Amino acid sequence: MFSQNINRLPVPPATAPQKADISNLAQKCQELAEQRYTIENNFRRRLPDLCPPDRNAKLNNKLQNWWQLNFADFQKQIKKQFKKPIPLTERNDWQDYLENEKNKIATLNQQISQSEIELNQEIYHLFNLTPQEIQLIEA
Predict the structure, then answer these.
(1) 25-34 — which CB contacts under 8 Å span 24+ positions?
(2) How many Å apart are CA 39 and CA 105, to the nearest integer?
(3) Predicted local distance difference test score (pLDDT) of residue 1
(4) Residue 4, pLDDT score
(5) Is the Cβ–Cβ distance between 101 and 36 less than 8 Å?
(6) Cα–Cα distance between 23 and 3 in angstroms, integer?
(7) Residues 71, 95: Cα–Cα separation, whole Å
(8) With contact defined as beta carbons under 8 Å apart, do 66 and 93 qualify?
(9) What's the CA dihedral at 8, 12, 13, 19 to 10 degrees?
(10) pLDDT at position 111 over 90
């Protein structure tokens, strides 16, 4: 796509309330995504705490995406990557931490999805799309 082609797209004029609604929904999506990113990053920064000092604390792809793991798989990945299991005395704390942060991410994902649906509905309304056109877009 080139900007010269995008400039030719017909964008209907929006009323001030429509612009405000679209702007607010887009902003909400952005803020929720930033919150999710912060949670992901903060947890990721804690993982090297489990790495022995003589090992490289680099995270593999599965640990980079830790929220996709259950605790058993999380433990396996820690042991695989750092060549040392999570100490028994710390396992309950790590399991609680993992589950709490995963729940936060799941909640944010639901809120983002809902906000994106609302944003799409506003855009569909602005363009006066028919249900058939909406179905074609969402397919």
Answers:
(1) 25/115, 25/118, 25/119, 25/122, 26/119, 28/115, 29/112, 29/115, 29/116, 29/119, 32/108, 32/111, 32/112, 32/115, 33/108, 33/112
(2) 7
(3) 60
(4) 74
(5) no
(6) 22
(7) 6
(8) no
(9) -100
(10) yes
CB atoms near residue 130 (< 10 Å):
10
**DSSP letter assigned to residue 86:** P
User: Which residues make Cβ contacts (< 8 Å) with residue 47, sequence separation at least 6?
Assistant: 57, 59, 63, 66, 78
Contact 126, 22 (CB under 8 A): yes
Over residues 2-58, the pLDDT tens digits come to: 777 777 778 889 999 999 999 999 999 999 999 999 999 999 999 999 999 999 999
Contact 135, 66 (CB under 8 A): no
The predicted pLDDT at position 8 comes to 75
Tell me which residue of 60, 91, 57, 64 sits closest to 75, measured CA to CA.
91
**What is the spatial distance between Cα 90 and Cα 112, in angstroms, rounded to a whole number?**
33
